[in-house]
């Protein structure tokens, strides 16, 4: 499904950025890179920074115009700072990811479009996009580099993908299953604990209630597993012995 | 509020990564960087990659141990791949961001902890964290570089911050907030507990490690509040007295 989301880099100047973008994509499970009129080659620097994702950079489709890059796409989103001169439908990164995965689930392609390192996308290119997406950066310093922007938007695509999968297979997600004690055993632990608190004179025999409620609340949050409960019981027994053996 | 979230880099080898991490932080509005036993200097390479965020790298606090880095923090989250050998309370990046902002809103500090480039955090360091957070990367290629991981988790902190601001404007924020101890106090509790386990001969003096790790894991899940921690300390003291008074 993630191969239905393309990452389109327009007019990239530094080959290292192509490599880093490829790495960011692959880590997030994306694979389809398109280079529009790149100003550099996919060279050794690109390969070095791509690390294990050099396949994505080497297999990138190279085209002359943004139009060519996105012609099969039903959803085209351009990455851009929020603009005052160009009012355009805006998406948050999170909604952008969700919309793309919605498309992908119906075998439709979408494109995340990133502009030049210094100047971004031209107005003409921005107007070829259905939406713009702005990463809500620090207004005092919003200089996100290209690969970081690819990383962040790809991350939201992946999160939307995982959310959707979880919904699809809900009930069948985590493999690890903790073994929890039966309530009976839990109550035996609390009785034991209460006894030790009285024995050590931490609480008086008539008034253990308030402290015990606090401790129940604490241990309920932790939800001890069987093994852990056994450890706690063992500690209580060790305390009893230490007191008793001195008697 | 965002200055209550620290980014802690442990044993970083490449100064460029410190620079790129500083840039990622600043773009997302974070400012507090701590370097634990760095294996490199904040040199020209770091400054170059930090671009307009060199102030963050240059002002980074440098300390010897993770414990020092996080002693004032009420929430410590270690970045880690999901581990099979060490089961620990896990957070999704999104929940991690939200929890940190919740703390920050009440003037509490939290720390995002990142390990070494090749080997990550040691088990010992991971066990000093209250939670682990894993960026849900592509299982076939999960090699996220350090700065990208900083970018992604800082992004979720920022998103949580913006969400909260939005809710604050719509007057929709709950008032109740648990008071959590600083990490220093938590560590004092663990030392105290360890001492009592040895005193009661539940563990031998040389081998408290394994049991202590189990107990850390349990209490990390519970995340004791200040009052609760005081209760636990009080119980330990009562046990000590009971043993001692019989001697």
Automatic annotation (TrEMBL), chains A, B:
The keyword Cytoplasm is assigned to this record: yes
Top-rank taxon, per record: Bacteria
Keywords carried by this UniProt record: Cytoplasm, Methyltransferase, S-adenosyl-L-methionine, Transferase, tRNA processing
Catalytic activity: cytidine(32) in tRNA + S-adenosyl-L-methionine = 2'-O-methylcytidine(32) in tRNA + S-adenosyl-L-homocysteine + H(+); uridine(32) in tRNA + S-adenosyl-L-methionine = 2'-O-methyluridine(32) in tRNA + S-adenosyl-L-homocysteine + H(+)
Principal cellular location given in the protein's record: cytoplasm
E.C. code: 2.1.1.200
Subunit structure: Homodimer.
Name under which the protein is recorded: tRNA (cytidine/uridine-2'-O-)-methyltransferase TrmJ
Species of provenance: Vibrio olivae
Gene (UniProt): trmJ
């Amino acid at each position: 499904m993630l191969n239905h989301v393309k990452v389109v880099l327009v007019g990239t100047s530094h080959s290292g950025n192509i490599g880093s973008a490829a790495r960011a994509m692959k880590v997030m499970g994306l694979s389809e890179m398109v280079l529009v009129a790149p100003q550099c080659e996919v060279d050794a620097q690109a390969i070095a920074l791509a690390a294990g994702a050099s396949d994505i950079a080497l297999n990138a489709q190279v085209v002359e115009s943004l139009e060519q890059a996105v012609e099969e796409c039903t959803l085209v989103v351009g990455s851009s700072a929020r603009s005052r001169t160009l009012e355009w439908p805006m998406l948050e990164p999170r909604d952008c990811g969700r919309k793309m995965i919605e498309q992908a689930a119906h075998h439709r392609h979408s494109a995340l479009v990133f502009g030049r390192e210094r100047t971004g996308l031209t107005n003409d290119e921005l107007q070829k996009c259905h939406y713009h997406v702005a990463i809500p950066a620090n207004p005092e310093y919003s200089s996100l580099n290209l690969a970081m922007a690819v990383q962040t938007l790809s991350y939201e695509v992946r999160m939307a993908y995982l959310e959707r999968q979880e919904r699809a297979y809900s009930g069948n997600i985590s493999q690890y299953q903790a073994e929890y004690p039966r309530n009976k055993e839990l109550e035996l632990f609390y009785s034991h604990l209460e006894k030790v608190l009285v024995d050590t004179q931490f609480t008086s025999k008539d008034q253990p209630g308030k402290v015990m409620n606090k401790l129940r609340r604490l241990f309920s949050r932790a939800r001890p597993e069987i093994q852990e409960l056994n450890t706690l019981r063992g500690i209580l027994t060790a305390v009893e012995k230490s007191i008793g053996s001195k008697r």
